């Protein structure tokens, strides 16, 4: 079918015209035109850094173009936002899934998929389970995403895209982490989407996938369109020439013959660990060993053990010398499958990431030879053809394939005794792939054992001299020499795992106990038990501990701290922190001391309360604005307001003054029996906030921003508005705490309130909220505040000095941090 006929018959879903985009003066796209037609699968090809993902970011609203237009139907846009893209039913499956790791599978779906779509077939949870099953994702809705393997994360991302029945479906390297069964299922879903009239853009580096799926193909190189045609009208050689701008030699370097292979350099005998058992194989000098099998059968676990990252039994000998986990950890060059989670430090530069494992080679005495480091990194980057504006460029600015090449560069620079690579060419273009294969062969020829795990059987066939096929963590077959074929490897894996697919589909992603321990409520149970134990012990030594007076005193103190800590929780959930909460509480008490006095009229008192509330909301807005628009870090922004508020407090009152009226203190300290109503209100507010955090889209968006800001932006969360709103809500809760503090103090004292900053952070940490954002619970914070007050109160009854108060608080924080991190430590190998 020629171009004119295609245009006449198939309507255009989207037309991208003259799209240009620059990053720091470097052109990512230059005048790109692309027409995407309904009912077609349009393959988008190009080397890493060619501009494919950037162009699709423009199409999906994630990237703002510098020039050009986007036409959809009869409407033309200068740019799209993620929210607009969602309304237009444009769905994208990113090369790196737009998921929030601290949230569960179900919460990730809810925050990304419109509620009306999830209710389309009735019950929301039934719809979510069905959409996961439709793509073969075995994850449980209550599994935390960070505990999933990379393949399951991609399937979850695919499920989110397909459930909206998109008019445009964009797939960016969707098969990179998937096994054969999942790839076949994906292809079926892509064909079904196109048959239903959707336009599909398919980004890949695998020409076989283009032949299997695509109706049309367009090639980008250096940010410009180099050509395009109907798939049937262009050959693979022509496509390769367009992609790399030159004719490629053979993809795979020549293998060694038996006569050329040298002495044994690697012997693995009876290796067992988490996820694999009794694995044995050998490698001779010059050989590359492949690890094959259906994804999730222990391959990644085995490679982590060979890299010294997991304990094992059995023996590993390299060059005739025994290597245990510690020695392997220092001498192994390791390329993980999930480069973002395990392979890269995203806040560091390209040079820093590449040189990190080899710094010992560049030291001269106690100092680092920066010139030697830069020269070594430059040479390695050139050999791998890494596209980066400079060595100082942040690694996060590079394309996925170039990031992968930096991980390889780091492994090579460290002069490893053994090289272990898990999916080494994942997301890498065809030109760089052949370079990686050549380098791996050269490393093996130098006597360094090379072990490669790959879900691409064709890759293992062309690269490896011996392939170990695994199923359920055990070796089921070893294939050597000419017997290594794609068909033989797939047949060995499928024959050994014939029933695995049904078992995985029926089995939950984890046990209920495991999900609970990884969840947010495990700390709540731990805190409750600690508080009960401490209370029982103190009561056993002094029965006045449960007197009405002491209960009232403890609950009142807990109310003041509790409200402020609840506000701090919101700031931490969004990935920030608010150091100003203590001075803000004190400042609002000082403001109130001018209005809430005996003899003042009701309207004057109401004005004072309103001014206190506006002061809080205004401070929150200032904090949020400094963070989002002035680009202050949360610590810097809130430290600035901390200092300003403390100064203003002393400016208004240089000494304590302004007695609070008895009518005001009477209302705040009102009791039902020994229980203050302020404490009852604290519990009600905490419960309401907890429900909102778990059950409303606003609550889930708050956690989404704290968990992964970029992913949240991609799923149309308004990040800036969410952060500013969070800080305003934080300060409003501090206002409630200041009312209780005001009644406790009975006077405007500019020196009071400051200590609540540290106490609120301590309470939040004890409650299990992460300092990194994205996860936590208001119930935990409530109990954390209660435990702090209880400890202070207990030291009085136990007749301990103030020193012990601080000691116990510090000890509680340390124990809680260690316990929570150990309990929540996700298993990095369970997924593969």
UniProtKB/TrEMBL annotation:
Residues 14-247, 254-497 form the ABC transporter domain. It is a multi-pass membrane protein. Gene3D superfamilies: P-loop containing nucleotide triphosphate hydrolases. The chain crosses the membrane at residues 516-539, 602-622, 634-652, 672-693, 723-747, 753-772, 779-798, 804-823. It comes from the Bacteria. One of its GO terms (molecular function) is ATP binding. Its main location: membrane. It is found in: Cell membrane. Keywords: ATP-binding, Cell membrane, Membrane, Nucleotide-binding, Repeat, Transmembrane, Transmembrane helix, Transport. Signal peptide: none annotated. PANTHER family: CARBOHYDRATE TRANSPORT ATP-BINDING PROTEIN MG119-RELATED, GALACTOFURANOSE TRANSPORTER ATP-BINDING PROTEIN YTFR. This is ATP-binding cassette domain-containing protein. It comes from Paractinoplanes globisporus.
